[in-house]
Amino acid sequence: MPELPDVEGFRRVLADHAVGRRIRDVEVFDSGVLRGVNAAGLRQALCGRSFGEPWRHGKYLFAPVAPRKDQATLILHFGMTGSLQWTAERHRFDRVAFTFRGGRLAYRDLRKLHGLRLAHDPQEVSQVVSRLGPDAADVSREELQQALSRLRRQVKPALMDQSVVAGLGNLLVDEILWRARINPHRSTADLRPSDVADLYSRMRTVLRQSIAAARVPPRKTWLTGRRDDPSGACPRCGSPLSHGRLGGRSTTWCPTCQPR
DNA sequence: GTGAATGTTCATTC
DNA sequence: GGAATGAACATTCA
To answer: Does the model's pTM come out above 0.85?
Structure first.
């Protein structure tokens, strides 16, 4: 599930409900999601403290621990199935829960591909961020142009590479390329500046609308709304959609709108 | 039982 | 050195 818009939604959940409130308890139901920290360490770092204003870069969510003199930051990554929920109800896939007066915040994740880290100082945080390209919701057209022009790769895997631009996942990239009428197999080396300009403006639109919905909205007018239908037709031209694998990921495109 | 799933990382092989 | 590929991680669901 989680790409940039989803994680931005989780950021809002944390910001709206938990920031500034005393963390009364940290329950670890499954330590399989803890990375580089154990349950006792996490409890000790967080209990009695609170979260400061959370921020996001790409698909990572950073929750600074207050008071700031502690210099610690909780780093969350949601893998393919994670989420952050403000809910009183315990769910079978809740792996960690933070308890506050008046509610609880659950890190819920089916597959446990990623999870929670605790950075003890700003260096550890910048270490994580330094491996990422500019945030997709924040990057300028010039930056994107430059990042892509350095590569000679198929455009889809290039855009999904978090060190090129951070935050785009499988669904978003398919959606953006479809709107920009760029075939996912095309090489970044062959993109004209006008292609990148198109790509950029489509990316902005898709991100803005997806962030508002806290997900890639499964609308029938979007490619995303049709990709799971094996006999799906392009919402724009009606051609049967093509399906394949690219960079190891399932890929959907329109052979008419997105010629090679 | 099999394969696939909106992610990342590592090893291997061009 | 880059780029492409496949496996691995853990788990459920169709």
So the answer is: yes
